[in-house]
Amino acid sequence: MSDEFDVIVLGGGPGGYAAALRAAQLDLSVGLVEKDKIGGTCLHRGCIPTKALLHAAEVADATRESAQFGIKADFGGVDMAAVNSYKDGVVTKGYRGLQGLIKAAKKITVVEGEGRLTARDTVEVTPVGSNAGQRLLTGRHVVLATGSYSRTLPGLNIDGERIITSEHALTLDRVPASVVVLGGGVIGCEFASVWRSFGAEVTIVEALPRLLATEDEDSSKQLQRAFRRRGINALIGQPFENVEYTETGVKVTVAGGQTVEAELMLVAVGRGAVTDGLGYEQQGVTVERELVITDERLRTGVPGVYAVGDIVPGPQLAHRGFQQGIFVAEEIAGLNPPAIDEDGIPRVTYCDPEVASVGLTELRAREQYGADNIQTYIYHLGGNLKSNILKTQGMVKLVRVADGPVVGLHMVGSRVSELVGEAQLIYNWEAFPADVAQLVHMHPTQGEAIGEAHLALAGKPLHVHD
Predict the structure, then answer these.
(1) Which of 157, 179, 238, 428 could crosslink 254 through cysteines, CB 3.0-4.6 Å?
(2) Burial class (CB in 10 A: 0-12, 13-18, 19+), 267
(3) 390-408 residue pLDDT tens
(4) From 380, 410, 443, 454, the catalytic residue
(5) Above pLDDT 70, what percent of the chain?
(6) Burial track 15-34 (b if 16+ CB lie within 10 A, e otherwise)
(7) Confidence category of residue 128, pLDDT binned at 50, 70, 90
(8) Nearest to 403 by CA among 433, 429, 371, 437
(9) Catalytic residue at 443?
(10) Which residues contact 157 (CB under 8 A, 6 or more apart)?
(11) Over 70: is that where the pLDDT of 466 sits?
């Protein structure tokens, strides 16, 4: 078996396996190094299992609230063993499918073990749980795709029982009676939503002034109101100070002395990049605050060495890493693909209600184009009949340059994640409101809300009251 490749990919998550598959399509030989399972955090401990839980939570809510639709159903509770079986089945099916794709790509050799960059063109692989010796792989190009881990705060003891991370939360065998979620970002809001639907009392502690602080301020306000209606308590702008054990769980203290007691505390304060101890800096790769610094073509500055995914500064999104992996493979193959516009990457938080966006927030647009050169419009889903059928509330907000294109789309409501595909086309193709206003949106759909919002910004609102 040859240990020389055109491309060595260090890490088998979405960024890494996408780079490997696309490189193989382009007739490049690939050594794909992974110490755990192909698919990475996203498939096994992140996106996919979390969304399975969120769907189970949606079913729980639909059952509990079925009478409003004229359907008689009794909510008998949550069987976490069965929920976990369903969740794990989804993950297993995805893993088998991915294994099949990798195996079918004849140019990919999967090397199991912990990889470390020992030269510009060399990765040293140490098998995990095996007595086999180290293996040296050499390649004309190396793609760093080592992913991320759950962050914590100084002084916090993650015991996996009362103080847990998202990885622990995904394997809980029960619904906790009460939970404090430390962090109001994507992970914190999604788990808060799941547990509330399952019947837990939930309190979110967030040091920043609002939930989902990277989203548009109007989206945050909509979500906070919706969470309040659902009975999710949120302590906003109140930094965490300490946590102590009680007889029944934990007691969390926030700035100002307020305390909250709960059975569990989920630490969801973001994810750090897995770069420490992997030899990156020793080989000349610039690493700042764990992140690998690259140019817009994802080059590290070390000839032939690229980086993709969560270790590159920017939003830590599986689909971002996936697209970056494809980009790097095509760059290595000499296809000169267009650079990825980070603002054009869709963002979704899959809580109830969902929050989806693409492009610039209103604040960023005003900073970039000038405060007087920006127009916004909010179309409330109360005027959308499909949203009324679903009994969801929310909005579609547009941000445009005056007499110019739409540069931001922000949505809140059930199933708005399904609208973000059209939203990204509008942003990435630099569409003007009039361009979208002339498109026919199927009736009745929530997609009509996008059409109505663009009609309004084009100067011809229809289903809108003054």
Answers:
(1) 238
(2) buried
(3) 999 999 999 999 999 999 9
(4) 443
(5) 98
(6) bbbbbbbbbbebebbbbbbb
(7) confident
(8) 433
(9) yes
(10) 163
(11) no
